[in-house]
Specification:
Distance between the termini of chain B: 13 Å
CATH architecture of one domain in chain B: Alpha-Beta Barrel
CATH architecture of one domain in chain A: Roll
Largest interface: A-B, 73 and 59 residues
Oligomer: heterodimer
CATH superfamily of one domain in chain B: Metal-dependent hydrolases
CATH topology of one domain in chain B: TIM Barrel
CATH class of one domain in chain B: Alpha Beta
Largest sheet of chain A: 8 strands, mixed
CATH class of one domain in chain A: Mainly Beta
Order of helices and strands of chain B: HEEEEEEHEEEHEEHHEHEHEHEHHHEEEH
Number of helices of chain A: 25
Helix content of chain A: 25-40%
Radius of gyration of chain B: 24 Å
CATH superfamily of one domain in chain A: Urease, subunit C, domain 1
Largest sheet of chain B: 8 strands, mixed
Radius of gyration of chain A: 36 Å
Strand content of chain A: 15-25%
Shape of chain A: elongated
Number of strands of chain B: 18
Strand content of chain B: 15-25%
CATH topology of one domain in chain A: Urease, subunit C, domain 1
Chain lengths: 1037, 453
C-alpha cells in the first residue's frame, strides 16, 4: 500500500508537464454511438475575397482562408479554393483570429448558497472546514487540487454572448480560496467538454489577501497579512513534501509522510514550469504578486485591477504580464458642491486616467491580455476594448492582447492566436476595422463551426417603391413607399399625391413586410395597415382600411436604398487632464524631492539629542543626505542650499516608536493565538495620506507594528516617511528584524464581546504559559533542524515560518516589542525571557512601567509609553502621566509614542508632558521622541540625533520644539525636503484647481450619474476591489 | 530635616489613600472613588495678592489683587482694598485666570471606557429627551480630580445615545453630591444629527443604500419627535380651556416643552456641512434655539450660522482632517476661521472623560495655527459660558461673578504650566488626584529600594 502510493506520486512528478500540455485533437473519429441516422456534412470551407489579418500587423488583401475539419489548411492571397469546399464570398469583409478572454470565473454564488459565508467574496471564510473527502491541506483556503476542467459545464447563453464579442476561447479559473486551483481554457462553440476543453491546468490561481467578512478574529487567515503568509507557507510545505517523500522512497522504514492532495498539486510551480496567476486588487498588489513570485521563482501572470498606471514604472520593471480588466470607474458624483466635497481628487483622477491604463501599460512594454471579468455585462467586452484603443492603446497592440499574448501565456500558441496553417479555425469575420465603434462582428467561427453573430436580414426591403392598388380608391394615384434605416430597425413613409405620412410602425419579418400609418392627411381616414411579401424588387401586398375593408396592392422597387453620408463630427477623444502624481490624488507629488549635494541650516537653535546637546545660533551642514557638520562657526560651502533658520529650532526628525500607519494588510492577524509568521512588511502602503500629515508634524520615521490581538503577533516594519515613493522604498533598508508581542486584556479578548471566550489564552496565566510553550517549541524545532543539518537522516524537518521567527527571537536576532499594561504581566514576561536567556527590547504602552522601573532597568527593557492616556479600560486605571518621568529616573530607556495616526502629528507636544509631569529636563524630554525611540528600534547609529554621519532626518520648528505654541515648518529625510509649510499652501491651491477642472470635465461628460461614483470603500484599509465587485453583484440581485 | 518631612507627608498621604482603598474595596459596586475631600463653602474673604490677573473680559492687570467672599468676586485691580478679615495669599509671579470650562464631556457618566458597568452616557432607544445627565453623575469619579488639577473647573456633561439623547448639565467639579455639583441644568437638549452622506471606511459594514435608509429613519425620528412633542404641548395647554379632555403625562414630550418654547437650546452634534445646513434649516422651521457641537465644516457655512445666530462648540482640535484632500491643519484652523467670519464659537475637548485636562492644549494648537492667543483663552472660559447661558455668573473675572479661579505658573496653553491653586465658587480645591498619589507612592517604592530622592 505504502509502496504503491509512493510510486504514484513519483509518477505524477514525472508526467506532470506532459499531462498539463495535453490537448484534445479534433477527431474525425468519435466515441459517441450515433443517435440515429449518421450526419456527415462535409466540413470544408473557403472564405474568399477577405482582408486577412493573420496576425497583428500582418494583413493580406483579397485573401482566401481554407478550413478543413476545424483546422486552417490554407490562408493567403494566392490560395486555391479546394474543389470539395463550400465557398463563402466574403469580399469586403475582414477576418481576424478569434479573440481570447484571458480570465473568467464561474458565476458568483449568493451568500448562504453553496457554502458561502456572509459577505465573504470568496464564499469561503476563515475557519471554513476543509472540503470533505480526499487528503486536504489543513486550511480550506489552500486548494490547488481544484481543477476547473473537472467541473466545467458549457453555458450556451454565455457562449453565445461571448461569440457576439468575437471571443472564441476563454480561461475559466476557480474563484475560491487563497491558492484556488487550476484553470481550464475552453472554446465558446457548441458541444460538451470533449470538444470545447482546449487545455486543462493552464495556470495555478491564487491571491495574497482574504476578504473581510463577519466573524473577524475567528479562523485563519483573518487578514491579508495572514493570507500572504499562508500562501508563502504552503509553497514551503510543497517543497518539504517533495523532499519528505523522496526520503521515504529511499528508506521505507521511515514513518510515511502525510499524503496531501494540495501539496501534490502544488508541485512544479516553484521554479516557473507553469504559470501562476495572482490577483492584484490594486497597484500595490501588482508589486506584491511580483515579490512573492520572486521568492519562489514563480512564473507569475498578474491579474490586474486597472490601477496599474499609478505605479507604471515599477510594475513594468517586474516584467510580469498583466491580465487587464475592462471595467471603468463610475462617474464621480459631483453634481452639488457638497456631493463633490465627498469625492476625493484621487477618485476624480482615477475616473479621468483609468481608461488609458491598458494603453500606458502597453507603451511601457508590459505584455497585456484582457479579461471580461468585472464587467457588469460581458457583452460590453469589445466596446470596452475599443474605448481603450480610443484612449491611446495601439490597435495592433490591442489585437495582440486579445489573441497572440493570451495564447502564448497559456501555452496554446501552437493552435491559437493567429491564422496560420495548422491552427484551429477560430476566427471572426467583421465588416470593417475591429476597433472602429461601428464595425460589426458578422461571424464567429469556433473550431471550424460557423456562428453568424450578426445575422443579416433574409432580404433587404429598403429603397423607394412605387405602389399599385387594386381598389378604385387609389388605383390611379401616384403612391410611393420609402423604406430606410438599419435592416433590423427600419423606418419609412408613404406618399400619396405629394402628401407624406410617416409609419407609426414598420418591420420586416423574414420576407414579410408590415407597416401602419395615419391615413388622414392622405385623405384615407384612420389608421391604415398594410403588409406584403418581398420577392426581389417586387412586393405582393394586402391591407385593411380603418373601416375594416380589405384591399390588395403590389409594389415595384424604383430605386435602391442609398445610405445618407455620415456627417456626424468626429471629435477626438479627450485624454487625461493631469499627469499621474505619487501617490495619486491630493498632495501627491510629481517626483520625490531632490537631494542637494549640500544643505546648510544657518543660525538655528539646534537640539542635537546627541553629545553636543543644545546649541544656540548654530549651523548644520548636510551633504548627500548625511549630516556632515554641526557647530557654531561653520563655513558655508559653495553651492549649498541655504536654509535661514534664524529664530528657529532644528531637531532630529521625530520618530514614532508605535504606529499603525501606511499598511493595508489588516494590522492584526487575529485568527491564531500565535501568528509570528505574518509580516507588516508585506503590506506597506505608500498611498496613506497620513504619511504626509505626519511629515507636517516633523515625523520622519515610524515603527509600523502588528496589532495586539494575540500574544505573539507579527513582524513589524520600520519606515521612513518618504512621501511619494514606491512601497519598498518606504522601508528603512537594513532595519533590524523585530516582532510584536502582546499581553493583557486584548490578547485574552476581554474587550471583544461575549462571543470571544474560547481562544487560548483567556487569562494572564495563560498568556504567560503560551509564550513559554512556544519558546519550548522553538527550541525543539531548532534542535530538529540542527540534527538534520548534521546527519541528513530521516524525514527532513518541515520549514515552519512561525517557528523560524521564534528561533530568531531565541537567538536574539529578532527584537521583541511587547504591548503590555500591568506590572504583573510585564514582570512575568521578563522572567520568561530571562529563563530562556534572552531580553525584551521594549514594552509598548507600559502604563504601569513606573511601578517596576528598577526591575525593567535591570532586565534592560525600554518603555515606549503614551504621555497621559488612561482610564479607557480596566488595565489602564493606574496609568499616570508621571510614568515617563519615573521610568526615566529609574534608568529605563523611555520613549513616547502615538499609536494614533493623528497624535503622531504632535509628538513633540506630547514630549512636553514629561516636562510638566515629573520635571524631566527639556532636552531629555525631546529625546523621548528622537534618539530614545531610535535606540529602542536599534537604529540609533543611523538616526535619532543630529550627529555627523547620521541620516539628515530633520525637523525645523517655528519656536522651541516642545512648545505647544510652536509648529513644524520643514521636514527633511535623507537630506531631501519632504515637507515645507509654504509649499503646502501652494499644493492646496493646485489641488483645488485640479478638482475644479475635473469636476467641470465630469459635468461636461454628460453622464454624471446619480449613484455610485463616490470614493470607493476599501474592505481592508485600502483594499479589496474584487470583494467590492462581489458586493455590488450580490446586492444587485 | 526637609527630607524627613517630605517622607512623612508622602507616607501619611499614601497611608490615608490606602485606608480609603481598603474601605472602598469592601463595597464591590463602587471600586472607583476619589480620595479628595470636597471643600467646605467659603467662610472668609480671600485675597490673592501680587499676581497678574487675566480677567479675560478685559485687559490683563499685572501686580494686582483679587478679593472674593462667599463665593463671589468682590474686587479686583491693581489697587483694591483688602478686607481686614481676609486671608491674604501671595501669588506674586503667578497668573490668575478664570477656571476653564469644557463644553462637551462625559465626566461623571463614564469612568472606564471599556467597562460597560461604568458607562451611563447612552440610554437605549433613539428618543430620550427626558434623560437628564446630572442625576447619573458620580461625584466620586477619579477622573474629576484629574481634570480639576489642570485647571478645568466646570464641564458640560452630556448624554450621547440614540438620536435625541437627553439634556446636559453644567457642573462645577467639586461637591459631595451631584446636586451640589450641578451649576445649571438643563443646559441643552442633545441631538445626534445623522450623517447625511454615506461614509466610506473599511470598518463600515453597511452599504451606501443601508446607510441612507438609516439616515432617513433617524431624520424621521427627529421630525416625528418634534411633531409629537408639539401636539402634546398643544393638547396640554388646551387643558386650561373648560371642556377639553385631560391628556396623560408623557415624560418625553414634557421634557421637550422648554425646547419648543425656545427656552432650552438643542445642541446638535454635526460635523459635515450637510448636517449643519440641515440642522439650521430644521431649527429655523421649528423655531428652536440651536447650538452646533462638532463643527468641522462650520466655517464652510459660516454665513448661514451667523445669519441665524447659531454658535458652534468646536469639539476637539486634535483630530484628523475629515477628507483626504483637506489641508493637514484643517481641524486646527476651524476656530480661527469661525472667528474671522464672525460666528460665535468656543472650544471643547472632544467629548472626553479621562483627558478633559488636555482642553488647553487643543486651544494651543488652534493658536499655533492662527487663532489669537487671547481669543484662545476666551474660547475655554468666557465663550463657553456665553454659549451655555452661564456668562452672567462665570467665564471671566469680574466683580459679582463666581470666584471660580485658577492660579498658574504661566500661560495655561503652555504644557509645562502648573496650576498651583484653584477655587470653585470661592471653595479652595484640593489639587491632588489619584495620579499624583500613585506618583508619590511609587517614588516611595524607589526610596525603599535605595534610589531616588
Amino acid at each position: 500500500m505504502h509502496a504503491f502510493h509512493g510510486r504514484r506520486i513519483h509518477r505524477t512528478f514525472l508526467v506532470f508537464a506532459s499531462v498539463a500540455g495535453f490537448t484534445l485533437a479534433m477527431a474525425a473519429e468519435t466515441t459517441v454511438p450515433p443517435p440515429g441516422i449518421r450526419e456527415n456534412t462535409p466540413a470544408v470551407f473557403a472564405l474568399t475575397g477577405v482582408r486577412l489579418v493573420a496576425a497583428p500587423g500582418q494583413v493580406a488583401e483579397k485573401a482566401t482562408l481554407v478550413v478543413r475539419d476545424g483546422v486552417i489548411t490554407a490562408a493567403g492571397p494566392n490560395v486555391a479554393v479546394p474543389k470539395d469546399a463550400r465557398v463563402f464570398d466574403m469580399t469586403g469583409k475582414t477576418v481576424y483570429a478569434g479573440l481570447i478572454d484571458a480570465y473568467t470565473e464561474p458565476p458568483k454564488e449568493a451568500p448562504g448558497q453553496g457554502g458561502g459565508m456572509g459577505m465573504r467574496g470568496d464564499g469561503q471564510g476563515p475557519g471554513t472546514p476543509a472540503p470533505k473527502g480526499g487528503a486536504n491541506y489543513w486550511s480550506a483556503d489552500i486548494v490547488p487540487q481544484t481543477r476547473a476542467d473537472r467541473t466545467y459545464v458549457p453555458d450556451d447563453d454565455l457562449n453565445k454572448k461571448l461569440r457576439g464579442q468575437g471571443i472564441t476561447a476563454r480561461l475559466l479559473a476557480p474563484a475560491k480560496g487563497i491558492i484556488k486551483g487550476t484553470s481550464v481554457l475552453v472554446t465558446t462553440g457548441e458541444g460538451d467538454g470533449t470538444a470545447s476543453i482546449v487545455k486543462d491546468r493552464v495556470a495555478l490561481h491564487g491571491k495574497i489577501t482574504t476578504s473581510r467578512g463577519f466573524g473577524d478574529g475567528e479562523g485563519y487567515p483573518g487578514s491579508p497579512m495572514g493570507a500572504y503568509s499562508l500562501f508563502r507557507q504552503s509553497f514551503y510545505d510543497a517543497d518539504w513534501y517533495r523532499q519528505a517523500w523522496d526520503a521515504y522512497q529511499k528508506d521505507k522504514t521511515l514513518p510515511r509522510p502525510e499524503r496531501n492532495d494540495a501539496l501534490e498539486a502544488l508541485q512544479g510551480y516553484a521554479g516557473g514550469a507553469a504559470p501562476v496567476v495572482i490577483d492584484a486588487g490594486d497597484e500595490l498588489y501588482d508589486l506584491r504578486a511580483d515579490r512573492i513570485g520572486r521568492e519562489f521563482s514563480l512564473n507569475v501572470i498578474i491579474r490586474g485591477s486597472g490601477n496599474e498606471y499609478r505605479r507604471l514604472n515599477e510594475i513594468a520593471a517586474t516584467g510580469r504580464p498583466i491580465i487587464v480588466p475592462l471595467n471603468m470607474p463610475d462617474v464621480p458624483k459631483v453634481k452639488t458642491p457638497e456631493e463633490a466635497m465627498a469625492v476625493s481628487l484621487e477618485t476624480m483622477m482615477h475616473w479621468d486616467i483609468a481608461p488609458e491604463n491598458a494603453g500606458r501599460l502597453d507603451k511601457a512594454g508590459v505584455r497585456i491580455a484582457f479579461t471580461s471579468e468585472g464587467l457588469k455585462d460581458r457583452g460590453e467586452f469589445l466596446g470596452a476594448v475599443r474605448k481603450a484603443v480610443e484612449r491611446g492603446l495601439n490597435p495592433d497592440a490591442a489585437l495582440k492582447a486579445l489573441t497572440v499574448t493570451p495564447a502564448t501565456l497559456f501555452g496554446v500558441a501552437d493552435r491559437f492566436g493567429t491564422l496560420d496553417v495548422g491552427k484551429a479555425a477560430n476566427f471572426i469575420v467583421t465588416d470593417g476595422d475591429l476597433f472602429n465603434k461601428k464595425t460589426k462582428i458578422l461571424e464567429t467561427w469556433v473550431l471550424g463551426d460557423r456562428f453568424q453573430t450578426d445575422m443579416p436580414p433574409a432580404a433587404d426591403v429598403r429603397g423607394t417603391w412605387e405602389l399599385k392598388f387594386s381598389e378604385s380608391q387609389g388605383a390611379n394615384d401616384t403612391v410611393t413607399l420609402s423604406l430606410k434605416g438599419e435592416p433590423a430597425k427600419l423606418s419609412g413613409s408613404i406618399t400619396r399625391n405629394r402628401k407624406e405620412s410617416k409609419f407609426s410602425s414598420v418591420g420586416l419579418n423574414d420576407t414579410r413586410l408590415g407597416f401602419a400609418f395615419k391615413g388622414d392627411s392622405l385623405t384615407w381616414p384612420g389608421v391604415v395597415r398594410m403588409s406584403a411579401t418581398l420577392s426581389g424588387d417586387a412586393l405582393l401586398g394586402a391591407g385593411n382600411w380603418a373601416d375594416g375593408g380589405a384591399f390588395s396592392w403590389t409594389g415595384k422597387r424604383t430605386a435602391p436604398f442609398a445610405p445618407e453620408p455620415d456627417t456626424a463630427k468626429v471629435t477626438p477623444p479627450e485624454m487625461a487632464s493631469f499627469p499621474v502624481n505619487y501617490p495619486l490624488g491630493g498632495f501627491g507629488v510629481a517626483a520625490i524631492p531632490p537631494q542637494p549635494d549640500a544643505v546648510f541650516f544657518q543660525n538655528a537653535t539646534v537640539w542635537t539629542s546627541g553629545p553636543q546637546g543644545k546649541l544656540d545660533k548654530a549651523s548644520v551642514l548636510v551633504q548627500k543626505g548625511k549630516i556632515a557638520a554641526v557647530g557654531r562657526d561653520l563655513a558655508v560651502p559653495a553651492g549649498a542650499v541655504i536654509v535661514d533658520a534664524t529664530g528657529k529650532h532644528l531637531t532630529p526628525g521625530v520618530i514614532d516608536e508605535h504606529s499603525h500607519i501606511a499598511t493595508d494588510g489588516g494590522v492584526n492577524e487575529s485568527g491564531q493565538t500565535i501568528s509570528a509568521e505574518v509580516r507588516i512588511g508585506d503590506f506597506i502602503d505608500p498611498n496613506d495620506i497620513t504619511i504626509y500629515r505626519q511629515l507636517a508634524g516633523g515625523v520622519t520615521m515610524a515603527h509600523v507594528l502588528h496589532g495586539s490581538a494575540n500574544t505573539i503577533g507579527g513582524q513589524n516594519q520600520i519606515i521612513k516617511l518618504r512621501w511619494g515613493v514606491a512601497p519598498e522604498e518606504l522601508k528603512l533598508a537594513g532595519a533590524p528584524e523585530d516582532i510584536k508581542f502582546a499581553l493583557g486584556e486584548n490578547v485574552k479578548q476581554s474587550n471583544w464581546g461575549d462571543r470571544y471566550n474560547t481562544r487560548y489564552p483567556q487569562t494572564r496565566m495563560g498568556a504567560e504559559q503560551i509564550v513559554r510553550d512556544e519558546f519550548k517549541a522553538g527550541l525543539d524545532y531548532k534542535a530538529r533542524w540542527a540534527q538534520w543539518r548534521k546527519d541528513k537522516k530521516g524525514i527532513p524537518p518541515r520549514r515552519d515560518l512561525e517557528l523560524d521567527a521564534i528561533v530568531e527571537i531565541l537567538d536574539g536576532t529578532r527584537l521583541v516589542h511587547c504591548h503590555a499594561y500591568r506590572q504583573d504581566e510585564m514582570l512575568a514576561l521578563m522572567r520568561t525571557f530571562e529563563d530562556f536567556g534572552i531580553r525584551l527590547v521594549t514594552f509598548e504602552h507600559v502604563l504601569e512601567g513606573y511601578k517596576i522601573g528598577l526591575e525593567m532597568a535591570k532586565h534592560g527593557v525600554g518603555g515606549s509609553t503614551f504621555s497621559d492616556w488612561w482610564a479607557y479600560k480596566m488595565e489602564v486605571c493606574d496609568a499616570i502621566p508621571y510614568n515617563g518621568a519615573l521610568m526615566h529616573s529609574s534608568g529605563v530607556l523611555v520613549s513616547f509614542n502615538s499609536d494614533s495616526g493623528e497624535m503622531a502629528r504632535r509628538l513633540n507636544w506630547e514630549a512636553d508632558k514629561a516636562v510638566k509631569y515629573g520635571a524631566v529636563p527639556e532636552e531629555d524630554a525631546l529625546k523621548f521622541v528622537t534618539i530614545n525611540p531610535a535606540k529602542q528600534l536599534h537604529v540609533d547609529s543611523r538616526v535619532g540625533s543630529i550627529e555627523v554621519g547620521k541620516d539628515a532626518d530633520l525637523a525645523l520648528w517655528s519656536g522651541p520644539p516642545l512648545s505647544s505654541l510652536s509648529h513644524c515648518e520643514q521636514t527633511w529625510i535623507d537630506g531631501r525636503k519632504y515637507f515645507d509649510r509654504q509649499d503646502d499652501v501652494t499644493r492646496r491651491a493646485e489641488n483645488e484647481k485640479m478638482r475644479a477642472a475635473l469636476i467641470q470635465k465630469v459635468l461636461k461628460s454628460g453622464d454624471a450619474g446619480d449613484m455610485g461614483g463616490g470614493d470607493k470603500k476599501p474592505k481592508w484599509p485600502r483594499e479589496d476591489v474584487f470583494d467590492e465587485t462581489f458586493r455590488l453583484s450580490v446586492e444587485g440581485r | 530635616m526637609k527630607t524627613m518631612w517630605t517622607k512623612w507627608t508622602a507616607w501619611t498621604t499614601w497611608i490615608l489613600w490606602l485606608s480609603i482603598v481598603i474601605v472602598v474595596t469592601a463595597l464591590p459596586e463602587s471600586v472607583i472613588a476619589s480620595t479628595q475631600i470636597p471643600a467646605k463653602p467659603q467662610d472668609h474673604p480671600i485675597a490673592l495678592v501680587g499676581g497678574t490677573i487675566h480677567p479675560v473680559s478685559g485687559a490683563d492687570i499685572p501686580n494686582s489683587t483679587i478679593v472674593f467672599d462667599k463665593g463671589k468676586i468682590v474686587a479686583l485691580g491693581a489697587s483694591v482694598s483688602i478686607p481686614a478679615d481676609a486671608e491674604k495669599i501671595d501669588v506674586t509671579g503667578k497668573h490668575v485666570y478664570p477656571g476653564m470650562i469644557d463644553a462637551n464631556t462625559a465626566i461623571g457618566l463614564t469612568e472606564i471606557g471599556a467597562v460597560r458597568a461604568t458607562n451611563d452616557r447612552s440610554e437605549t432607544g433613539p428618543i430620550n429627551p427626558n434623560a437628564k445627565a446630572q442625576v447619573a453623575v458620580n461625584p466620586e469619579s477619579e477622573l474629576i480630580p484629574v481634570a480639576r488639577s489642570n485647571g478645568i473647573t466646570m464641564v458640560l456633561t452630556d448624554p450621547s445615545g440614540g438620536v435625541i439623547s437627553g439634556t446636559s448639565a453644567l457642573l462645577c467639579l467639586d461637591g459631595w453630591t451631584w446636586e451640589e455639583m450641578t451649576f445649571k441644568a438643563p443646559v441643552g437638549m442633545h441631538v445626534n444629527w445623522p450623517s447625511m452622506v454615506p461614509r466610506t471606511a473599511w470598518w463600515m459594514q453597511d452599504s451606501e443604500e443601508k446607510q441612507l435608509e438609516n439616515r432617513d429613519k433617524a431624520l424621521n425620528d427627529i421630525r416625528n419627535a418634534f411633531a409629537d412633542a408639539r401636539s402634546y404641548m398643544t393638547a396640554k395647554q388646551a387643558e386650561a380651556t373648560p371642556g377639553v379632555q385631560y391628556h396623560s403625562f408623557d415624560s418625553r414630550w414634557e421634557a421637550m416643552i422648554p425646547v419648543l418654547e425656545g427656552k432650552l437650546p438643542i445642541i446638535v452634534n454635526a460635523d459635515q456641512i450637510q448636517q449643519i445646513q440641515a440642522a439650521v434649516a430644521f431649527a429655523e422651521k421649528e423655531k428652536v434655539k440651536l447650538i452646533i457641537c462638532g463643527g468641522y465644516d462650520a466655517p464652510l457655512c459660516a454665513d448661514l450660522l451667523k445669519k441665524n445666530n447659531v454658535p458652534v462648540i468646536v469639539d476637539g482640535i486634535h483630530r484628523d482632517p475629515m477628507r483626504n484632500d483637506d489641508p493637514y491643519d484643517a481641524p486646527f484652523t476651524v476656530p480661527d476661521r469661525l472667528r474671522q467670519a464672525g460666528v460665535a464659537y468656543c472650544i471643547s475637548g472632544g467629548g472626553e472623560a479621562a483627558n478633559v485636562r488636555n482642553l488647553p492644549y487643543h486651544v494651543a494648537t488652534a493658536v499655533t495655527y492662527g487663532l489669537p492667543e487671547d481669543e484662545g483663552i476666551k474660547a475655554i472660559t468666557l465663550y463657553p459660558a456665553q454659549i451655555l447661558g452661564a456668562a452672567d455668573r462665570v467665564g471671566s473675572l469680574e466683580t459679582g461673578k463666581d470666584a471660580t479661579i485658577i492660579v498658574t505658573t504661566g500661560n495655561p496653553l503652555e504644557i509645562p504650566t502648573q496650576v498651583t491653586m484653584e477655587f470653585i465658587q470661592g471653595k479652595k480645591i484640593d489639587l491632588s488626584d489619584k495620579q499624583k498619589m500613585l506618583n508619590e507612592k511609587y517614588k516611595e517604592k524607589y526610596r525603599q529600594m535605595g534610589v531616588g530622592k
